[in-house]
Amino acid sequence: MIVPSLAKSLAAVHEQRRALEAQIEAHPLSKVLTSMPGVGARTAAVLLVTIGDGSSFPSAAHLASYAGLAPTTKSSGTSIHGEHAPRGGNRQLKRAMFLSAFAALHDPASRTYYDRCRARGKTHTQALLRLARHRISVLFAMLRDGTFYEHRTPRLA
Predict the structure, then answer these.
(1) CA geometry: angle at 136 spanning 130 and 140, to 5°?
(2) Alpha helices in 27-155 (DSSP H)
(3) CA 106 → CA 2, 14, 15, 37, 68, distances in Å?
(4) In this predicted model, what pLDDT tens digit does every residue of 77-96 receive, in sequence order?
(5) For the whole prediction, is pTM greater than 0.70?
């Protein structure tokens, strides 16, 4: 008795998911967002819900701060401590960008940026957060200009 009820509920959820994916794909910015490596339908949905077309943010730095990806300086009195990842920001957007950065490690440009961060002594998580911050700047420019992601050959520096 319980199993058929759960099966019907699961089928209804799958149907809602298919309908939502169709709505996301119909959105004008969907193709722009999903052109970026590591951004799929789910991440595009989170981005569309949380930031829309990005026009409410004057710059990429403001968007990064809203997402909780802009580094902050901790200070108290005369003590100033280095840059740290903030605890605030939109958790849903920060998580989406972090997972997107992780998924984009197969992209040569993203992998090169990540490897440079690791070579400078950053941990895996720190390097991924920096990559997510870098990618949010690219995403902001894509949304602002309405352009697709351009695959570039990474610079070796």
Answers:
(1) 155
(2) 30-34, 41-51, 60-67, 91-103, 108-119, 124-145
(3) 43, 29, 31, 8, 24
(4) 776 666 666 777 889 999 99
(5) yes
